[in-house]
Amino acid sequence: MIGDLDRACRRVLLANWRQRSTVPAARLYPHQWSWDSAFIAVGLRHLSPVRAQRELESLFGAQWDDGRVPHIVFDVHVAADAYFPGPSFWRSAAVPGAPGVPTSGIVQPPAHALAAWLTYRADPAAARARGFLDRIYPRLVAWHDYLTTRRDLTGSGLMSIVHPWESGMDNSPAWDEPLARVTPVPTTEFTRRDLAHGTSAERPTDADYGRYVRLARDYRDAGYADARRADGFAVEDPLCNALLVTGEHALASIAAELGRDPRPHLAAADRLTDALVATLYDPAAGIFFPRDALTGSLVRSWSVGGLLPLAVPGLPVAAELVKTALSDRFRLREACPVPSYDLTAADHDAARYWRGPGWVNTSWLLWYGLGLHGETSLADDLRHRLLERVRTAGFREYLDPLTGAGHGTDDFSWTAALTLDLIRSA
């Protein structure tokens, strides 16, 4: 049974490979996405370590001169109108310092350093022969430098996201409050492509999509300059900052492997961890909340992102996060994948994009964090239940956390890749 699932994972990853990178899903997402490629590389390392290295090299080949890694790298061989917003919307070619290939101008969570380190460890000899770490390390450093300087919009030491799409958890209720001040673009001014591949009940509303387009357009028209705008969106997100910390630990390991000094990365990880806990953790709630960078207020929305700092080595409040994950809000021992949003909330929606369904990537991060903090029994239980869910539902984009019903697109690459990693992590 596990052998059949392993082979099925491989089939999806092979079908979605496009010479230099992997598309998240052939129909709905026909280009390369940033944090998708990080998770895909984690699974690809079991299929082909060299392909996993190329996945990351392809993405970082489209890095901007300021260090940002765009959330989409567009395939010029795909029809220009296959995805919205496409290259003609983002207009990266007109921006000084953008790469020669068309990209978006926003970013996604920085899962890449961890992925690069895990990829290297899968076959160190092959990576050394190709000079993988030598090439990727300075690009990862530039990426983290961009996030910790240009994106520290409040002076707290934490990075901010300037668009919900940058969170990776695009449609989370955590963004409702800061999004409320954004005036939507009328639906007559854009054409959604996502609804051609999924029902409206599973996707963001037109009003929210109009807000997303407004924010992206305003950011583009400002030359992708990073600043707080009174009518805009800027949030310090627990998940993004946790991955930044985890990435600094990975960079320390990479630096040591290259014979460089790991201490600056470890010091950065300590500073970020202190800022993360001091700024975004609520001891009474036992969870991390996002902070609105414009108002300075915590957004008290119980999202799975608030649990995912568990992936940070040495996190001082790890035990409290585990208790919250076991509570009725997330039901870690029963729900699978881990719900993206509070099961007890009146607006929980088990089928709508990031407003309740579970995703394999966030569950993988929680599994990784449980193991990191010695919760091996919970980690093993989650791993077994995730494998059973995928075996039953297939490689769906997201699933009902209680029934296991599949939603979104199918043959989703990171579902296959991380399932393959879970299989091989026994």
UniProtKB/TrEMBL annotation:
Pfam families: MGH1-like_GH. GO terms for molecular function: Glc3Man9GlcNAc2 oligosaccharide glucosidase activity. Belongs to the glycosyl hydrolase 63 family. Residues 29-415 form the Mannosylglycerate hydrolase MGH1-like glycoside hydrolase domain. SUPFAM superfamilies: Six-hairpin glycosidases. This is Mannosylglycerate hydrolase MGH1-like glycoside hydrolase domain-containing protein. One of its GO terms (biological process) is oligosaccharide metabolic process. Keywords: Glycosidase, Hydrolase. PANTHER family: MANNOSYL-OLIGOSACCHARIDE GLUCOSIDASE (PTHR10412). The lineage of its organism: Bacteria, Bacillati, Actinomycetota, Actinomycetes, Micromonosporales.
